[in-house]
Design a protein that fits this description.
Helix content of chain B: 40-55%
Radius of gyration of chain B: 22 Å
Number of strands of chain B: 14
Order of helices and strands of chain A: HHHHEEHHHHHHH
Number of helices of chain B: 12
Strand order of the largest sheet of chain A: 1-2
Largest sheet of chain A: 2 strands, antiparallel
Number of helices of chain A: 11
Order of helices and strands of chain B: HEHEHEHEEHEHEHEHEHEHHHEEEE
Number of strands of chain A: 2
Largest interface: A-B, 34 and 36 residues
Largest sheet of chain B: 7 strands, mixed
Radius of gyration of chain A: 19 Å
Oligomer: heterodimer
Chain lengths: 292, 370
């Protein structure tokens, strides 16, 4: 019973981390820099949902759709207004990383300004005891999180493998210059990466918001976990990011069964350190020379 | 382009100068300081403290202040963060204030205390519980019951509860939680089957609660603050934990707790302090409701009494911090919360606790053992 519950807990955590990491990896693979402000898309979507549903009283499903859409647009704006301008000035990926930190802090501060710092609840799901599933207890929302995570990630995989745009993204991820020669506009691909990646992050934000309440820093915390998952699985590889995130989810939850739960973040960071030191390309990544 | 930049810098500079000049510099005002969570997760507390203090200031200014000078408060935001609290006190000390009300959370107060003590500035916390504050210094006062009292009171109440043969204790991993937990465990006579601390920023308690469930306690004690408490209650309900939850402190005595926890708060019992007692409280309550359109919270009343203690000391003994400090040790007046007297450590003498519970999403007095 305990082991099943731990596995379920790990699945739930891993599913959310995977959503964050997948979008982040998609952006990294095409744009080649660490977009830490990805976390702000998470918080942004959650607060938009709160604003539309809890404050304005708009229908829940419509609010959710609008929240996801606005996260996608928000991601696009981040690229268009900040990153593209820096790229035009030949900024290196380190500069873009620093800019992304600044963006994350800025967005969090704006959310703090408009909504206040107290914990907000989206009161859509009634709190009640979960269902029993093979000896573990899991609530309907948690099942929904796991299922939708799997579905989304499968769709993302299909998208990357089968559609034209997906193939174009892989081309740009592989070698930007040659892709440009074959007529693929790198800027267009960047935009699409941000749109899709941020939309997925938005979904993660909404799910976390429903499950755990909202606070302005919710994006940062998840981003760190998602980043860790992406590094473990192979940064720049979307399947790797997903694998790494689930592994992280399991490692954390099984780890704190034996250790006091205060060590959860420590476990995540130790794993991150170990991978960065000994296998920086992650589990599925290929060691490659950094593209400039 | 260059001219545009120069113009921009010029405008910003002028704006700052104007902002600086806009504040009437009073040699005619007495300033006291405040440090507390005016923003952040615990902002609900800081806001209420601010309201209580402003009422005290208003009352004295209506009577023409102290020695003919008006009193003003500089409110600094610490977010209950120890670093910010230390910085705030540093800043206030540099501005020359002689007394500071703060901080709210024990860890923040303990970080700020050495700075106040070294600079011989009075620091009075209206609500922090950690025992070590008693030894924080001559200039450090606490207008609240320390955790040693609280933990003992909670242990006594629990020892007499029926379904509490096996108990688990979950505590927030900071000065306040650790101090409370130690006092409670030292005095509890029931069997303690599980004890664990959690990080303040933790949001996912599922596996921790799994461990609690495995230990099957009849009663789970929460020694934490309301944001984490709310999360634990929600996730415990989802995990199907049947045990009764018991909150160790006044940290849960805030409407924001019920808002955050929702249905999961129903039936929650906790040990708090009375918001106020006696006729002076009734008067305060009426004035507070009229001014702010809401019921006063214990955070407002304790902050109000702390401000009153400082103002009375300034009025009776003088405006320097040494005079205020000496006066505070001699203080004896009826506040809206308790009779206000401080022992040789600067702790409030006396004080009572009261059991409350959440019923129909409201706080009421505890109705009897369940």
């Amino acid at each position: 019973m305990v082991l099943e519950q731990l596995l379920v807990n790990g699945l739930i955590a891993g599913a959310i981390y995977a959503l964050v990491a997948a979008g982040f990896s998609l952006i990294y693979s095409t744009c080649r820099f660490i977009h830490f402000a990805h976390g702000s898309a998470i918080a942004f979507a959650a607060y938009v949902l709160y604003f539309l549903f809890s404050m304005l009283g708009i229908d829940f499903w419509l609010s959710t759709a609008l929240a996801i859409l606005s996260a996608a647009i928000f991601g696009l704006l981040m690229n268009a207004l900040v990153y593209r301008q820096l790229r035009k000035r030949k900024a290196s990926s380190v500069i873009l990383l620093i800019a992304s930190f600044a963006l994350l802090i800025l967005v969090e501060s704006l959310i703090l300004l408009f909504f206040g710092a107290d914990v907000k609840t989206i009161g859509f799901i009634k709190i009640e005891k979960g269902l029993e599933f093979f000896g573990a207890i899991i609530t309907p929302l948690q099942i929904f999180i796991i299922v939708s995570s799997f579905v989304l990630l499968a769709l993302l995989w299909l998208f990357i493998k089968k559609t034209r745009l997906g193939k174009a993204m892989r081309a740009v991820a592989d070698n930007r210059e040659i892709a440009a020669i074959t007529g693929i506009s790198a800027e267009k691909i960047y935009n699409w990466s941000f749109i899709i990646g941020s939309a997925i992050a938005g979904i993660a934000g909404i799910l976390v918001g429903l499950e755990q309440n909202l606070e302005p820093t919710m994006g940062t915390n998840l981003m760190i976990k998602g980043f860790t998952g992406a590094v473990i699985g192979g940064i720049g590889s979307v399947p790797g990011a997903i694998l790494g995130s689930f592994l992280l989810g399991f490692a954390e939850n099984i780890g704190i069964w034996f250790l006091p739960s205060g060590y959860k973040d420590a476990i995540a960071f130790v794993i991150l350190f170990v991978f960065l030191l000994f296998r920086p390309q992650g589990i599925l990544g290929i060691k490659r020379v950094i593209q400039k | 382009m260059k001219t545009k930049i120069l113009a921009l810098i010029g405008i910003i500079a002028i704006a700052f100068v104007l902002a600086g000049c806009a504040q009437p510099q009073g040699e005619e005002t007495i300033t006291i300081g405040f440090s507390g969570p005016l923003s952040g997760e615990l902002a609900s507390w800081g806001e209420k403290e601010r309201k209580g203090i402003e009422m005290a200031i208003e009352e004295i200014n209506v009577l023409d202040g102290i020695q003919g000078k008006k009193v003003a408060v500089v409110f600094e935001d610490s977010q209950c963060n120890p670093n910010s609290a230390a910085t705030n006190v540093q800043k206030l000390v540099a501005e020359g204030v002689q007394a500071i009300i703060g901080d709210t959370c024990s860890s923040a107060t303990l970080a700020a205390a050495p700075i106040a003590e070294n600079n011989k500035v009075v620091l009075i916390t209206p609500i922090s519980g950690a025992d070590s504050i008693s030894q924080a210094g001559d200039y450090i006062f606490r207008n609240f019951i320390p955790n040693s009292y609280y933990g003992i009171a909670a242990a006594q109440k629990i020892n007499s509860m029926q379904n509490a043969e096996k108990i688990a204790v979950l505590y927030i991993n900071n000065d306040s939680g650790v101090s409370w937990k130690n006092n409670f465990i030292a005095n509890a006579s029931k069997q303690i089957v599980f004890v664990e601390g959690y990080a303040a920023e933790e949001t996912d308690f599922r596996t921790l609660l799994l461990k609690v469930k495995e230990a099957s306690p009849g009663l789970v004690i929460l020694a934490g603050y309301y944001p984490d408490g709310a999360r634990i209650l929600k996730q415990a309900k989802e995990a199907g934990i049947q045990s009764q939850f018991f909150g160790g402190g006044d940290a849960f005595d805030d409407p924001a707790f019920i808002e955050a926890a929702g249905d999961a708060a129903e039936g929650f019992v906790f040990l708090s302090v009375p918001t106020g007692t006696g006729s002076s409280f009734k008067e305060f309550q009426a004035k507070y409701k009229q001014k702010y359109n809401e019921e006063p919270s214990l955070f407002s009343t304790y902050a109000y009494d702390s401000a009153k203690a400082v103002l009375n000391a300034m009025h009776d003994c003088g405006l320097s911090s040494e005079e205020i400090k000496n006066c505070l040790y001699q203080t004896d007046f009826q506040g809206v919360t308790n009779r206000i007297r401080f022992d040789k450590n600067g702790d409030l003498i006396g004080g009572t606790t009261i059991l409350k519970q959440v019923k129909n999403m409201q706080f009421i007095e505890y109705e009897g053992s369940q």
